[in-house]
Amino acid sequence: MPLMMSEEGFENDESDYQTLPRARVNQRQSGLAWFLLGGWKVLCGSCCDCLAHICRRKKELKARTVWLGCPEKCEEKYPKNAIKNQKYNIITFVPGVLYQQFKFFLNLYFLVVACSQFVPSLKIGYLYTYWAPLGFVLAVTMVREAVDEVRRYQRDKEMNSQLYSKLTVRGKIQVKSSDIQVGDLIIVEKLLCFVVFFPGSCFIRTDQLDGETDWKLKVAVGCTQRLPAVGDLFSISAYVYAQKPQLDIHSFEGNFTREDTDPQIHESLSIENTLWASTVVASVNHRNIFGLLDLELNRLTKALFLAQVVLSVVMVALQGFVGPWFRNLFRFVVLFSYIIPISLRVNLDMGKSAYGWMITKDENIPGTVVRTSTIPEELDFINNPSTLTQNEMIFKRLHLGTVSYGTDTMDEIQSHIVQSYAQATSQPSSGSATGATPSRKTQASGPKVRKSVSSRIHEAVKAIALCHNVTPVYESHAGVNGETESAEADQDFSDDNRTYQASSPDEVALVRWTESVGLTLVNRDLTSLQLKTPSGQILSFYILQIFPFTSESKRMGIIVREESTGDITFYMKGADVAMASIVQYNDWLEEECGNMAREGLRTLVVAKKCLSEEQYQDFENRYNQAKLSIHDRTLKVAAVVESLEREMELLCLTGVEDQLQADVRPTLELLRNAGIKIWMLTGDKLETATCIAKSSHLVSRNQDIHVFRPVSNRGEAHLELNAFRRKHDCALVISGDSLEVCLRYYEHEFVELACQCPAVVCCRCSPTQKAQIVRLLQQHTANRTCAIGDGGNDVSMIQAADCGIGIEGKEGKQASLAADFSITQFKHIGRLLMVHGRNSYKRSAALGQFVMHRGMIISTMQAVFSSIFYFASVPLYQGFLMVGYATIYTMFPVFSLVLDQDVKPEMALLYPELYKDLTKGRSLSFKTFLIWVLISVYQGGILMYGALVLFESEFVHVVAISFTALILTELLMVALTIRTWHWLMVVAEFFSLGCYLASLAFLNEYFGIGRVSLGAFLDLSFITTWPFLWKVSTITLVSCLPLYIIKYLKRKFSPPSYSKLSS
């Protein structure tokens, strides 16, 4: 069912309905003839489509009614509160793993070849020659999958076994988290870690939903707060009616109803009454991860198979298609099956495990965990959404219009505050009430009177200390009985025991700053707050009204009455775009806001307005009437508040810095220089996201920023996209709501424009939107995506990406547990990508190509051998030699390529352009593949023809001669490929050579022509003669020396970029 249809679509639907009866008449007229001539296909297809639709139909989401403490009353059956990250169970493990393996062409091909050996007429060699390698591959894969599955099961069991306190009629009991049901009353003991002054409220964090680590005030239902004891919850009959689950995590609608009273009690529920939303996890959709290298090799193996079939057809054609040519064709296919080496998957899987071990053991990125052994080389081709800050705000700048104070001049502000309040306390108490206050009123009502710097600082600091939603809380060290109450007076003003909680970390930073300069917030409840001056005097204020911050208004306000004087003041702070039209005319605000924004500071404009008692009473009456109105309540309330927001006195401009993680700026610059496009997806507000993008240099200083205006329909989105299209080389900032509208109508156009931007910032994104953006980039671009996050709200994005990286941080370990790679700091990404990602890809590419070369060269020799012996489908080498060739004779030197590196890690970090070169010219492409094919054909032909020509008189020893030259050639080719030698590479070379020489001595029956029973075995005295040694050396030299010369000339006249740096 489409979400949206055009008008033409609706018209077409109506016309279809109008013509439907006519179509039915035509069908009835045709009758049996219609059924026999194809109607049965239509009916069968319709039935299958209907069944498929029923099976795939998603469960319809409905509103739910939850009874307090009575899960059995719930009419609908809800899923268990259990986390399950496992892919398989005991029954599906073996079929599931086999399906995942055999859906790859490479493994399916070898399964067919191995099964063909059960047919006598198609049998080429011993069964173990084909089944042993395939069984080994499957065994390695199953063991690896089983280990990963057991780890996932242990993590799930640990999470599902966590104990929680459940409230029942019999009291408090302990239950596992997996046994919690909808309707249970759970006592969250770890939530309230502070003593809060007003009952029925607490602070929670929603970082696992929207990524915001600040504390949010939540209010309990008033009806339950009036109960004498917690156990009385079971004495009432009440239920909660909640709206159906939805994607919007910033809103909630519901009702609380108590039935056992007359009349029934109804209370509306909103987002302020919820602790969590949609936190039950029933199951997780698993992605089956296959790296880019796996997909490229899968394409190359298909090309190899095509070449194998063509070669087999050529051999049968040269035979003249005589006799049972089809059987001979299949025998040739089996005979040339080594063109596609089964050891390719084994070597690559073992290589990936080695890369993971290297990443884990890297001392420069401690704490890094590789949670999947499938895609280390996937650290490549990346779009990068990420969390960049520590969520720790620091007050940096205070600007009063004529004077600016920074971190190094805060002591001047402190001295002004101390001096200001010292003068106020030194005056007689009668004079302070009658003399000091009128002077402030005079200054406020007559803005032309020039104030002193000291008084302006005093008013600015006082406004910042009053205009907020911050609550001071104190840790409870005493008991929860009378001891706490008796100690409360001492505890209220204990600076060491005080912490601040608020819905915004910016506000906490401002209040902490006022505390540092001498004006301290010591107490707050719903109706009042108290400040402590430097001299210890307590100033009390009554909170008359609060206007909270919203993303639409971009400002918050508070009306307070000072207890000592009775003065009523309206304070307001907000973004410069919202406050510029509210404050009195000035000539400095816009310029200074721009200067602070360029420094990456979050700016807030602070203003005030003094109100008389009559003015406030008039406002209060109009405000209460607006709040009681049924229609357009929000608009009427906003209009009343805006009547106060006129000609306000501008007090100051503040600048707060959100501290970045260590080395964020150089890391982002490193990624940009490597050709990686960076997108930042965040749940923060637009202004916050823009500030982070500037401070982290995600957007460079000389780049323009295009803020995508809010759009709500197709026409607005079209106009805004056209305006954005005219911009060049500018970063894009867009909100989640506007993004959803653009993707609904202009998905392709938006993604095309956004991908041309140097950086993109998406703010107010829900977790689902983050995952949607990642999938869009995968669909509309040819690039790979990597998602980087540090919170539970990033899990869906991480799992949607080709590669997921989780950062263990303040928001917990959910992201790191769900990711493919877990790191401890953002700066580690640079080394993870530039060093390990680059090396893993280049090593795997070299390893894969070399393993394919190893198979192609022996297949070429087999083709030459068969063509000389009248195109007979007879194997050149016995089964043991073929198994040994792919394993003990060449496996260790070839696998040692995983230790190779072209440049040192320091050089790779210093020149990220090397990574950029890697993304342009693939190390594993059809071009390099064809080069290796030519090398294999050349070397295979030289080895076979050389053995036949030079040893014409000793033809019985052609197996030993050609196989010895083949092994030596392979060992020399490994040495030719290696760029940086490691001592293990040398050991692998000599170990393999020693194993082969031992085989010549002790397994000589395998090196003869024909069957062992005929006595065709190797003469040991022959291989020690001088002619054998120099002729084998000559064949090997002819096969390898030209390649050495070509490599030297290419390096001399057209060196790769890495060789320029390494030299």
From TrEMBL:
GO terms for molecular function: ATP binding; ATP hydrolysis activity; ATPase-coupled intramembrane lipid transporter activity; magnesium ion binding. Residues 74-131 form the P-type ATPase N-terminal domain. Residues 817-1055 form the P-type ATPase C-terminal domain. Keywords: ATP-binding, Golgi apparatus, Lipid transport, Magnesium, Membrane, Metal-binding, Nucleotide-binding, Translocase, Transmembrane, Transmembrane helix, Transport. The chain crosses the membrane at residues 32-54, 128-147, 303-323, 329-348, 851-871, 877-899, 929-949, 955-976, 983-1003, 1023-1046. Mg(2+) binds at residues 790, 794. It is found in: Golgi apparatus, trans-Golgi network membrane; Membrane. It is a multi-pass membrane protein. Residues 421-452, 479-501 are annotated as: Disordered. It is an enzyme of class 7 (translocase). ATP binds at residues 507, 549, 573, 602, 682-684, 764, 770, 793-794. Its cofactor is Mg(2+). It catalyses: ATP + H2O + phospholipidSide 1 = ADP + phosphate + phospholipidSide 2. Residues 421-445 have a biased composition (Polar residues). Belongs to the cation transport ATPase (P-type) (TC 3.A.3) family. Type IV subfamily. This is Phospholipid-transporting ATPase.
